[in-house]
TrEMBL record:
It comes from Notothenia coriiceps (black rockcod). This is Kv channel-interacting protein 2 isoform X5. It is found in: Cell membrane. GO terms for biological process: regulation of potassium ion transmembrane transport. It holds the Pfam family EF-hand_7. PROSITE patterns: EF_HAND_1, EF_HAND_2.
Length: 231
């Protein structure tokens, strides 16, 4: 059985942990080939969406040219047209959680990556988000996580939003895997979450409260460091 603290760790770290599996799914740990192959890919691929130039992406992210090459090759293999829609994104995540329903959490994650709100994730969207999650500062990563949980993007996390997130995680992990858990466990977790993070007890968690609370949690800080230099 997972405790409330266990669920809290899942809520805060599942984004980063799943990216290891996503990178493997996209074949992004394969050896890098020649220096010019990515530029050739950019020029010769018949795609619906053509990425920006390698130099520009290198300037805008914290990836090297070789790392971008690996990322683009894997992304193109999975998404030949150059973008991934929400249904395909959900399909990728469902492979990792056959015992549960990951569709709602994948929806929230898709929304966080789809910064242009056009219903698709381009290679640029993908590497910008990945650059923050894998190479960003602690503040960068926590800001990204906060944006994920702030479902209506109004600058604060409400109990209703956190309950939606927790229910989606609960469904994704498979509630029947933990038969001793009751349906009210997600709500109990939300109350615990707010007791720790809602510093001024006004019923919402701001970005400042979120970052401050996370930084004081040694387990969260240690776990975030595990994803440094993954690729």
């Amino acid at each position: 059985m997972l405790s409330l603290d266990g669920l809290e760790m899942i809520a805060l770290l599942v984004v980063m942990g799943l990216f290891i599996k996503v990178l493997e799914q996209f074949g992004m740990f394969e050896p890098v080939g020649g220096e010019d192959s990515v530029e050739d890919d950019f020029e010769l691929s018949t795609v619906c969406h053509r990425p920006e130039s390698m130099d520009k992406l290198q300037e805008q992210t914290k990836f090297t040219k070789k790392e971008l090459q690996v990322l683009y090759r894997g992304f193109k293999n999975e998404c030949p047209c150059g973008v991934v829609n929400e249904e395909n994104f959900k399909t990728i995540y469902s492979q990792f959680f056959p015992q549960g329903d990951s569709s709602m959490y994948a929806h929230f994650l898709f929304e966080a990556f789809d910064t242009n709100k056009n219903g698709s994730i381009s290679f640029e969207d993908f590497v910008f988000g990945l650059s923050i999650i894998l190479r960003g500062t602690i503040n960068d990563r926590l800001n990204w996580a906060f944006n994920l949980y702030d479902l209506n993007k109004d600058g604060c996390i409400t109990k209703e939003e956190m309950l939606d997130i927790m229910r989606s995680i609960y469904d994704m992990m498979g509630k029947y895997t933990y038969p001793s858990m009751q349906d009210d466990v997600p709500r109990e977790h939300v109350e615990s979450f707010f007791q720790k993070m809602d510093r001024n007890k006004d019923g919402v968690v701001t970005i400042e409260e979120f970052i401050e609370s996370c930084k004081k949690d040694e387990s969260i800080m240690q776990s975030m460091q595990l994803f440094d230099n993954v690729i």
